Amino acid sequence: xxxxxxxxxxxxxxxxxxxxxxxxxxxxxxxxxxxxxxxxxxxxxxxxxxxxxxxxxxxxxxxxxxxxxxxxxxxxxxxxxxxxxxxxxxxxxxxxxxxxxxxxxxxxxxxxxxxxxxxxxxxxxxxxxxxxxxxxxxxxxxxxxxxxxxxxxxxxxxxxxxxxxxxxxxxxxxxxxxxxxxxxxxxxxxxxxxxxxxxxxxxxxxxxxxxxxxxxxxxxxxxxxxxxxxxxxxxxxxxxxxxxxxxxxxxxxxxxxxxxxxxxxxxxxxxxxxxxxxxxxxxxxxxxxxxxxxxxxxxxxxxxxxxxxxxxxxxxxxxxxxxxxxxxxxxxxx
Length: 334
Known about the structure:
This protein is an alpha+beta fold and 334 residues long.
């Protein structure tokens, strides 16, 4: 019998570092006038995204994979107060440090229960949000009295075309499989005809390894097929792209940001497409969040939002090798 299993994974110094990280986040949010909110961990609807696995209780509720939907409902509700012509309230930006849950295998960077920092800025697009993100990260590094590691941007489509010779929208699974073969790498046949899954693997295997290992990288201008909950727009060359980005440190994904879609009809069609893909993959069928769709129909204000994994950020900040080192009790010890 292991008599040390009751012990925490994080040292006392690491717990202090985690507390300082959260304090630093809250200090910056307070300086920016962003309101802290709390939303339920349980929901009647789960995530329709085929690549996100929700945890479900015996009562039929889902543990939240992100606080995004209830936070958008708050934004829509208080935007209505401004629209009545009599309110003098200022529409607040919102943030939350939420405990979230995903049914994923545990590993170096994964724990089924973790913390997301999510915030929304009214009247801003994803470019302004990327600057917002950099400002927050600089504040955290300054507070920790650490040298700023730097941040650069890479364009998704450019990275794909540089290697495959075609833009992501023109790429086929055969193109990607051939590239794997030319590099002497095995390509999983289980991907089948799912071009987006093949592109995700291609990015993981051939693009991320070229990111600076000791600095932040923003990957921008995602293909339209990977728009998720983002609006569509155009890149510098006039090509249609999703108005979203992801933040990495080396190869480690830290955050995902969008210029948020506000059209309920389009969002419903995207949810329906997710469900069809779930059916194709024989994944659990998830109920669409009708409360979110009604809120969007009532009037979600123009905004940009981002979700940042705090434990992963803590790993970078403190140079920790495993996520269990920054958690009091990971799922193996919980």
